[in-house]
Amino acid sequence: MSKIHICLPYEDELLYSVLARTRVKNGYIAYTYAAEDFFLSPKTRPDIEFVNAYSDGLLEELEKIKPFSEWIKENTMFYYYSHFIPEDRKTGAFESLMQRNGEHGKNMCMPAKGNRRFLRICPICYRNEIQTYGEAYWHRSHQMMEMDVCTIHNCRLMESTVKISGTASPSLITARPLKK
Ligand SMILES: [Zn+2]
Fold first, then answer.
1. What is the CA radius of gyration of the chain?
2. Which of 101, 123, 134, 174 would be 20's cystine partner, CB 3.0–4.6 Å?
3. What confidence tens digit (pLDDT) does each residue in 1-57 have?
């Protein structure tokens, strides 16, 4: 496995989105090749809102950018889902995320598994990012369920075809406003 060059996170970007851009930048054409290098198990389904059991190589590169605890705080939905839960459960969830053991959902108020939820995107953020950076990214703040507009542009968020939960085949897809 060659060294993975992690893309630096943008403001409010999901870690999933950073890894999706990293997949493209490192030339992984097929998801399965990236999965072999990124995760402890190549059968991993990327957790769009949180973290996964990453390979030692990927983790090492992530931690060169900032401590893993900062990735959790700044690039996952941890604060969103743990805002209203008691302190001990919040601590438990954070520890699960630090250990990447997949148990974090047990301590947080997560939506029911059966809910059909898709990653959302603001078309104006998207256009601006493409113009400014030559690429776009998935924002954390666009995935908050009770918010249907982008707080920067007051623009209605669009649903993509990327399923947040459910049985779609695992993938790491970069941000784009796909119409269903
Ligand atoms: Zn926007």
1. 16
2. 174
3. 678 999 999 999 999 999 999 999 999 989 999 999 999 999 999 999 999 999 999
In angstroms, what is the span from residue 157 Cα to ligand 1's centroid?
8
Q: Of 115, 116, 127, 143, nearest to 176 (Cα)? A: 127
CA–CA gap between residue 134 and residue 163 (Å, rounded) = 24
Q: How far apart are the first and last CA of the chain?
A: 36
106, 145 in Cβ contact below 8 A?
Answer: no
Residues sharing a CB contact under 8 Å with residue 106, sequence separation 6 or more, in sequence order: 92, 93, 96
CA of 77 to the centre of ligand 1 (A): 18
CB 88 within 8 A of CB 114: no
Inter-residue contact 52 to 35 (CB < 8 Å): no
- DSSP conformation class of 100: T
Q: Is 117 exposed, middle or buried (0-12, 13-18, 19+ CB in 10 A)?
A: middle
**Residue count of the chain:** 180
How much distance in Å is there from the Cα of 131 to the middle of ligand 1?
A: 14
Maximum pairwise Cα distance, the chain: 44
